[in-house]
Amino acid sequence: MSNRPYYIAGNWKMHMTRAGAAELAKALAGALKGGRHKYLLAPSFTLIETVAPILKGTNIRLGAQNMAPEEQGAHTGEVSVLQLKDLGVETVILGHSERRHSYGEEDALINKKVKLALAHGLEVILCIGELLSEREAGRAEAVCEAQTVAGLAGVAAADLDRVVIAYEPVWAIGTGKTATPEDAGAIHAFVRKVIARLYGGDAADRIIIQYGGSVKPDNAAALMAKEDIDGALVGGASLKVDTFTPIALFG
Ligand code: PGA
Question: Does any ligand 1 atom lie closer than 6 A to the CB of residue 178?
Answer without folding.
Answer: no
